[in-house]
């Protein structure tokens, strides 16, 4: 080692941000809107419930070929005046600006309206780390033919400002913890500091007196977002064990078991998805694989098994996924 230098701090493993966002939106959709789009939240009749329209949305985007990852959700809700509407949530989780972002928002919007003939609101949440990336509209014009599409947008990095971060710290909205975890995971380069933030967020749940089931679910989401090097993760767990003993709330054992169960299920799912993608490539070629990749990788194991059985006798891809 060169004199006068020191070892760099351990880097954190690459975190998976889009998957926990999809799950967080399903579990806490009203809380998500209340925190980030309060005016829209106030217009919805929550007593009517919500409907997640994953199948309908996948029909819109299935043909899109992209290597980028997104956390998108299409949700059916009812307004206070009784009107049924759909809300498209797009969460941009990558750090690089994308020039086609606004155009894709417009494309998804008009395709949903055209195919299903329902009112649609498209909302953007920018969870990336590029402060200057703030698309709010798509426009195109040829002579006097002019298109302008504006959409509500929230930039999560704005919550890193001291005043707004303080609002998250004291918020009674559980989705505030998801936002805080996302911001710290994106901005904190030092793994030891990230470990401190992870423990701080977990401790907030206990201090707020959340019920056991809620703590377990939020723990899993935060743990999914904030990944630590193995040694620091072990330190974090020991710190949490000690804290739980002091609080007389031994939840971590259950959390770890939930993580093990989820990991085993996820491993089975990934294996079945890989096999199906390989078979699809062998029988129909890479273009068909690209067209159905998103649908396959987001399907449940039972569905994957059913599709794998159909591929043996299928003459076209459509007969597999109908």
Summarize the structure in words:
By secondary structure, the protein is an alpha/beta fold. The protein has 2 domains: 18-250, no CATH class; 272-321, no CATH class. It contains 14 helices and 7 strands. The strands form 2 sheets. A 5-stranded mixed sheet has the order 1-2-3-4-7. The chain has a two-stranded antiparallel ribbon with strand order 5-6. The longest helix has 33 residues, at 252-284. The protein starts with 17 loop residues before the first helix and ends with a helix. Mean pLDDT is 81; it is low at 1-17. This is Transposase.
Name the features.
322 residues, alpha/beta, 2 domains, five-stranded mixed beta sheet, two-stranded antiparallel sheet, disordered N terminus, Transposase
Question: In a few lines, what is going on in this structure?
Answer:
The chain has 322 residues and is an alpha/beta fold. It has helices at residues 18-27, 29-36, 38-42, 54-61, 101-116, 162-170, 175-187, 191-207, 212-225, 230-247, 252-284, 286-297, 301-310, 317-321; strands at residues 51-52, 71-78, 84-92, 120-126, 137-142, 145-150, 153-155. It has two domains: 18-250, no CATH class; 272-321, no CATH class.
How many individual β-strands?
7
The gyration radius over C-alpha positions equals: 22 Å
Residue ranges: pLDDT <50 for 5 or more in a row?
1-17
Number of domains: 2
State which percent range the strand residues make up.
Answer: 5-15%
Percent range of helical residues: 55-70%
